[in-house]
Amino acid sequence: MDLPRTASAVVIGGGVVGCSIAYHLARRGLADVVVVERETVGSGTTSKAAGGIRVQFPTETEIRFSLEAIRVFERFQDEFGVDPGYKKIGYLFLVSDAKQLRGFEKRIALQRTLGADVRVITPDDARKLVPALRVDDLVAAVWGPGDGLAGPAEVTAGFARRARELGVKIAEGVRVSSLERTQGRVSGVMTSAGAIASPLVINAAGPAAARVARLAGVELPVHPRRRHIFFTEPFPAIPGPVPLTTDVTSGFYFRKEMEQVLLSPGDVEDIGEDFDVPMDWGKVEEAVQKAIQRLPIIGDARIAGGWAGLRPLTPDDHAIIGWAPGVEGFFLAVGFGGHGFQHSPATGRYVAEWLLDGKSSLDLSLFDPSRFDRPRAAHEASADAG
Questions:
Q1: Radius of gyration of the chain (CA)
Q2: What is the mean pLDDT of the chain?
Q3: In terms of domains, do 209 and 321 share one?
């Protein structure tokens, strides 16, 4: 594809967030949008996502993002012509101390106020949902039956397909080498396939967000962290479907995927700026040990394979959405910490509103990019899993 020389907006990053933003902009009439993706659409962090969708978040804004996303996923096939494999298998958090439970209860009160079905259940009730669970050390579990999962690749493909139909150009295998600026504002991008002049550049580059921001002289506290997911050979001893189940204390989580069990040790490792994330087979032992503690029967399963993905994390575990400080025309939608997929429908809509109407219909101040510059900025990580 010949790269257009001008565009109303350039989106850097063809993952699920970038494709959603491009689609929503085009749907609102901004047709000459260009998405620049260094590999192929959805091939980066999106392709490594576990696909979970939950309302169990600690803030009103994120809960509203989730509720909106669920409505979109429920009708996704009708609207986008792609079956995302959306299933409400539920999310189950296993809680082993009273302090953890108090933290959850505060969040649950907010979630229920906003219309989400989330409840505290007994350890025995948790074992009814997943009969193989060991529950003797639990004080409670938190159950969200309306939570579920969908296929990140299918959702990204749906956004990309509709965006193209609406006139968006998606350039794959193209790298951005510099951001052009004129008198303090963005004037375009230089890529490996040539220059594109544009008054608006949107950073949706996932784990590469900080690197892209530096091209405009902006320092972003988005740190890619590696996390592993392994899968077993077919294992009928744990019959499906199984909720996405997280042991809050150890970080271990699992779910059934077809005949196999997916499990993760919940590891979060700093890998610096190297975005080639090979899988560390040494992590299998950690995953299996945590798994056997919670799911003893899994000791009979064989690990068949796995992968490593990146979670672009910020100091307070909330995304960064808004205008980049000090550079006009440079917009940020980054740092989703593994939640970019499930929040992509709402992110796309609210970012498009902000860019085209001058403001978003939902208060997005939680994601303010300049919050880390303020004295005593909130650097308290939320107790969040998956």
A1: 21
A2: 90
A3: yes
Q: Which of 92-101, 269-278, 353-362 has the lowest mean pLDDT?
A: 269-278
Please indicate, yes or no, if residue 83 is contained in any of the structural domains: no
**pLDDT tens-digit series, residues 229-260:** 899 999 999 987 889 999 999 888 998 878 88
Nearest one of 76, 64, 166, 158 to 111, comparing CA atoms: 64
Report helix, strand and coil shares of the chain as percent, to nearest 5. 30, 25, 40
Separation between Cα atoms, residue 246 and residue 96, nearest integer Å: 11
Q: Which of 23-27, 40-44, 153-157, 339-343 has the lowest mean pLDDT?
A: 40-44
Nearest to 279 by CA among 232, 226, 233: 226
Contact 204, 333 (CB under 8 A): yes
**Residues 182-227: tens digit of each pLDDT:** 998 999 999 999 999 999 999 999 989 999 999 999 999 998 887 8
Residue located via tokens 């230089």: 190
- What is the distance of C-alpha 234 from the center of its chain? 27
Minimum mean pLDDT range among 170-174, 293-297, 370-374: 370-374
Helical residues (DSSP H) of the chain, grouped into ranges: 16-27, 45-48, 60-74, 76-80, 98-113, 123-129, 152-165, 209-214, 283-294, 340-357
> Cα separation of 38 and 41, whole Å?
9
Residues 160 and 170 in one domain: yes
Instruction: Check if the beta carbon of residue 186 is closer than 8 Å to that of residue 179.
Output: yes
What dihedral angle (degrees, nearest 10) is formed by the CA atoms of 293, 298, 299, 304?
-130
Calculate mean pLDDT across residues 374-383: 45
Query: In the numeric block, which tokens belong to residue 281?
Result: 């087979």
Same domain, 28 and 159: yes
Q: How many residues does the chain have?
A: 386
- Name the residue range of residue 207's domain: 9-49+152-222+316-373
3-state secondary structure of 343: helix
The domain total for the chain is: 3
Rounded alpha-carbon distances, angstroms, from residue 205 to 141, 285, 364 = 36, 32, 20
Q: Confirm whether pTM is higher than 0.90.
A: yes
